[in-house]
Specification:
globular, 3-stranded antiparallel beta sheet, alpha+beta, 2 helices
């Protein structure tokens, strides 16, 4: 199970920046053969948040660089869009608190 989690979320998805603020940054290590035909891969984070990656082509995720955009959908339907792949503190805390239903990360 540990290897699967590292492949899907990266080794340390939560971090703290230089100012002490929490952030969430997924760094998947997904080989090209694990992408579905629709160029996505999904998993459940913290047993409650459905995370989906979408890529432009089947390739090893570690060659993709930074995500282009990330969308968080809260329970109740509200959404928040992030440019890139680093989810800032207030939203990282909401993920950790179980307030976010889905995270869609596009490369």
């Amino acid at each position: 199970m540990s290897m699967y989690l590292i492949m899907m979320q990266g080794q340390w998805p939560f971090g703290v920046d230089a100012h002490g603020a929490l952030f969430l940054h997924f760094k998947p290590v997904i080989p090209d053969w694990l992408w579905k035909d629709d160029l996505s891969a999904s998993f459940t984070f913290l047993s409650m948040v459905h995370v989906t990656y979408t890529v432009p082509t089947k390739t090893n995720s570690w060659t993709l660089g930074e995500a282009n955009r990330t969308t968080l959908t809260y329970h109740g339907g509200a959404t928040h869009h992030v440019s890139g792949g680093v989810i800032p503190s207030s939203h990282a805390k909401a993920v950790r608190a179980g307030q976010v239903a889905t995270i869609d990360i596009h490369y």
